[in-house]
């Protein structure tokens, strides 16, 4: 099985848009990794996340704003030889993004981002009142580095 780098930015962005969630890697107060699944939106090189107004992940991110965000789609078990354990692989594609969290405070900007987040998950128009918008924390991560990989390709698929 072969792993190849994905260099086409449109293909990389397509992988991101197909994912229902992302995994966000944060550094805790003791310098240890902490990874959590989060809902997201993506637009023009920026990943948007949101959370409640309190909690450990906010404290960690305020102390260590650099994050690593991973997206992965397609999870198909494949093999070269069905009886040979080492020939098995998981056919999938992934994107790893690195950036720094900035928190958005402006109500109009937060509302636009939250609308973008909702559009990632539903076609239904959604409304949100000012108290709800004030109570949510919106994260903006400008992607500084983005890499894509495709895993588990058979030689005939290269």
From TrEMBL:
SUPFAM superfamilies: FMN-binding split barrel (SSF50475). It comes from the Bacteria. Pfam families: Pyridox_ox_2. This is Pyridoxamine 5'-phosphate oxidase family protein. It comes from Caecibacteroides pullorum. The lineage of its organism: Bacteria, Pseudomonadati, Bacteroidota, Bacteroidia, Bacteroidales.
């Amino acid at each position: 099985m072969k792993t190849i780098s994905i260099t086409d930015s449109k293909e990389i962005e397509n992988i991101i848009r197909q994912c229902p969630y992302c995994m966000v890697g944060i550094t805790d107060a003791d310098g240890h990794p902490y990874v959590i699944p989060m809902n997201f939106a993506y637009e023009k090189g920026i990943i948007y996340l949101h959370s409640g107004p309190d909690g450990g992940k906010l404290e960690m991110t305020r102390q260590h704003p650099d994050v690593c965000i991973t997206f992965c789609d397609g999870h198909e078990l494949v093999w070269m030889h069905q009886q040979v354990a080492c020939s098995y692989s998981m056919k999938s594609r992934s994107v790893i993004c690195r950036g720094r969290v900035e928190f958005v405070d402006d109500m109009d900007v937060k509302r636009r981002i939250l609308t973008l987040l909702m559009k990632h998950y539903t076609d239904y128009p959604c409304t949100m009142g000012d108290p709800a918008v004030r109570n949510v924390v919106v994260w903006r991560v400008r992607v500084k580095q983005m890499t894509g990989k495709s895993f588990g390709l058979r030689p005939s698929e290269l």
